[in-house]
Design a protein that fits this description.
Layout lengths: L9 E7 L4 E6 L5 E6 L4 E7 L9 E5 L4 E5 L6 E6 L10 E6 L2
Antiparallel strand pairs: 1-2, 2-3, 3-4, 5-6, 6-7, 7-8
Length: 101
């Protein structure tokens, strides 16, 4: 599988076996999250975060609630809440962020 341009430094990942997606976070500035459909390993969407939301070193997934939590290695560090792809690609969007400082 070839990742989209700008997503060549994968550093974190989370898997949603219920809905069949793999999410990969990148070591880029700004950070990018790549959604991959597991049934055929197709990249279905790339979410590019905003400036300052960089270097996505960690991910945690809450499949039941429908959220992906991504930690940044930026100043200040943040946790970004992302809507998972459940029934529509439109759900894959940044919802909120929490500063850790």
């Amino acid at each position: 599988m070839i990742l989209p341009w700008g997503c060549d430094n994968p550093v974190s990942a989370a898997i949603d076996m219920t809905h069949g997606y793999l999410y990969i976070g990148t070591l880029t500035s700004p950070g990018r999250i790549v959604a991959i459909r597991l049934s055929d390993f197709t990249v279905v969407k790339t979410l590019i975060l905003t400036a300052g939301e960089d270097f996505l070193y960690g991910m945690a997934i809450d499949v039941e609630a429908g959220f992906l939590y991504v930690s940044t290695y930026a100043a200040p560090p943040e946790i970004i809440k992302i809507g998972l792809i459940i029934t529509s690609l439109d759900q894959f969007t940044k919802l909120d962020k929490i500063s850790l400082v």
